Amino acid sequence: MTTGSLGLRSSGSYGSLQQQLFQNSSSPIQTTPPIPRKPPKLFKEKEGLFLWICKFAPRKNVGMLLLCVVSAAAFLWVLYVGKGEVAAEQSNRMFAPETVHKYIFRGIESIQKNNVGQSASTVQPPPPPLPPSPPVYFKGYTLPPGNLCEGFTLPPPPADKKRTGPRPCPVCYLPVEQAIALMPDAPSFSPGVSNLTYIHEENQSKTEFGGSDFGGYPSLIQRNDSYDIRESMSVHCGFVRGIRPGHQTGFDIDDSDLLEMESCQGVVVASAIFGAFDLIRQPKNTSEYAKKNVCFYMFVDEQTETFLRNSSELNSSMRIGLWRIVVVHNLPYDDPRRNGKVNVRSDVKFESSSNFPPKWRLLHSRSCSRQSEQALGHFCYLSKKEKSEQVPKLLLHRLFPNAHYSLWIDGKLELVVDPYQILERFLWRKNASFAISRHYKRFDVFVEAEANKAAAKFDNASIDFQVEFYKKEGLTPYSRVKLPITSDVPEGCVIIREHIPISNLFTCLWFNEVDRFTPRDQISFAIVRNKIMSKTNWTVNMFLDCERRNFVIQGYHRDILGRLTPPRASIIVHPPPPVILETRHTSPFVPTSTVITTPIKKIPTKRGRERKSKRHRKVIAGNKDPNFN
């Protein structure tokens, strides 16, 4: 049988494989011809469905139904395709490089957290910075129950009719150790202002009235703006020229002293003597802790330095007892035009300078020239002294920028209580940042102004102008309506304060009023305090004047001590010697005779010398109040 009879194709056809197998086989294989394939059943069903649709589609109802079915199918298909694209997008994002890196980094982090103890070489990323903690402020304290000072009240004044003037009264201080332990470790809250800067002016131009080269010449608009309390403020506060306070600004201080003053970071006690007007008085009852940690500074001018060196009190150490002596050069108010002027009233006649009353001040009538200085002695220096003393008195926060607390005392005062006890009693216990004593007698600014004019403290016209200016700004006489404000007139010889922005602002504005108007700071105190209190809840602790006299003792000025006559030596009157009557004895052999003796006169006793009559007291002429200055 041949391949052609078998129906197989030759080579090159689909049956070539079968032909090779047939040729290679040893026995013939009988194959059957291929069976033709039947069309699939599904194709037949689709063909029948298509014919059925073509047959019934021309009918109206069936056509509409078919159209709805096709539309629904197309809508579902679109939804299906869109969902697939979103899933594909998400899968692409999931497997994007940055996503893969993030998941890998998280996996590494989790592995590192789980294997902290196993792998010491694993480097962890730094933790995020913590948010800043809120500032901490001192909020005061209450004394523990049972403390003697908790319920302390002032006893009634002693009934001594012979002493009617001001006197000290008892004050309850804590022991020094307890006062130091209660010292705050955080500053007090400064209401209204938290950031205070100071104006620096090299080129100054005088506007309106008042001012000086040292304090600047702020306009009235700038003055009103300084009383608009804000969180961040910039005001005039002396030292408007130069790089830093005390360096080419007026009131110049040596650099070595400035460095030591800047290093004082705790409590500073300061005073000043200009014109050798007072004697240096050493603090008493000061603890060893205060001697080591409190900065005691005494500011003097060149004239006072010369006097101290000539009296052998000052040597190269620049220390006298606890006081560190700081010499001030180039006093800001050394210009005679800024000094007081003398105005001798026509109804008062003085033959020489020694006849001037001690309390006479220089007024605004005649210039205090060199000739008048020679004629009037130290009186031409008084107004300059008052102006210059206001610099350390009110601007200690500028001279000691790093100090936290300060205690100012006038040069005529002697400190007799530890500074920490004073701070605890009048600041920390009261939760106050500024404390000053009231005037012992006057509470009203208008009464104080009249007293200043009567005592010739300054030119009457200048005082009247200042008071009228304050009247227009709303200053009213003091009355009980102003309570809890207890007085409008302070006794400015002692100032206790904490150096925070609000108290620094108060003393800056107070100094600006003294620089613009008269140097009588008691007149300008109330207007500055009232303006600040109207914008904030800041208050001033005005304690009693008798409490002030408890921790400072007031002495006489040096010139007054020189004029005081030394006390006379008391004359001791001895009683007369007793009279001895001698009797003559006659001999028995001699006849007796009558002896006439001279009668002894009886010395009359003066009973009036033993008791002093109240009606014949010696009254010293002049002002009876030694504290009015």
TrEMBL record:
The keyword Transcription regulation does not apply. It comes from Solanum commersonii (Commerson's wild potato). Residues 605-629 are annotated as: Disordered. The chain crosses the membrane at residues 62-82. This is TOD1/MUCI70 glycosyltransferase-like domain-containing protein. The keyword Membrane applies. Keywords: Membrane, Transmembrane, Transmembrane helix. It comes from the Eukaryota. Pfam families: TOD1_MUCI70. Residues 605-619 have a biased composition (Basic residues). Residues 196-342, 385-557 form the TOD1/MUCI70 glycosyltransferase-like domain.
